[in-house]
Amino acid sequence: MYLQLKNEIRGKTSFISLEITPPHGSGNAVIFEKLDATKLKNRINAFVVTDNPLARLKSDSVITAFKLQEYFSKPAIATITMRDKNKIALQSVLMGANELNITAILALTGDPATSSNQPNVKGVFEANSTLLLEIIKCFNAGIDYAGKEFGAPLRPILSLAVCNSRANNPKTLQKKIMTKLRFNPAALITQPIYTLSNAKVLKALFDEAKEQTKADTELVFGFFPVTRLKTAQFLTSHVNGVHIPQLLMQQLSGAKKISEEEELRVGTILSKEIFKELKNFHPKLHLMGANNFKLLDEITA
Predict the structure, then answer these.
(1) Which domain holds residue 258?
(2) Contact 174/205 with Cβ under 8 angstroms?
(3) pTM of the predicted model, to two decimals?
(4) Residues above pLDDT 70, as percent of the chain
């Protein structure tokens, strides 16, 4: 799966990954069956499994990635955040994932622990996601973070990273992109993008950073369909680095005043248009949608 994913990400044709959020409990089979009932599964190259997003308790990302990979015979990328694990736990999880042939890891700093739905949670946050990227670099060199050689060789690990899709100061965003690119991840996945102009600016910043760092990294645009005004408002207020244009907000607001059905219809049409524009400009995208596979199937058809 390692080589298959590496080649598909870095290939010249389209690449589409799909975000999967594990259940709160043991409902993975239900989620898989929902996806299996759509044609969406035939359009994607890989899965990206979230790690307790918004610090809300969910099933383990590595175990879910393993089950996905077995069920669909497609590469699964496990997200690991810095919020919940120290250096020992991070390395232990990476070794365990390697045993399960989960060899693609999306490194995230993670949402603040204060967002959690569990009582009195404290975040670990020994560092940001670059520490995990550095640990993966060590593992690929045959040593742990303390420099000790492994008793038996591990499978190569493919690292992936994330970046904001927009910033008030583009140069500040570019510096953050360059920090990630110095670890040469296979892909840099952006937060959701909603305008072609935003995509073009971000691509130009990335291309310049890639040239300067000589990284062999591909840019993957994040896409989260907005079919409800409340979803747009949530993304704007809770997700850093996401910009939803005022015109889109106004169109959803106007449709909502007519009816919820009209709001959904208008939101779906607008999301289809945005997806098509992004894919025509840069055919490497990451789909997010809170496991609403039916909606993503319709938008990407």
Answers:
(1) 2-300
(2) yes
(3) 0.95
(4) 100
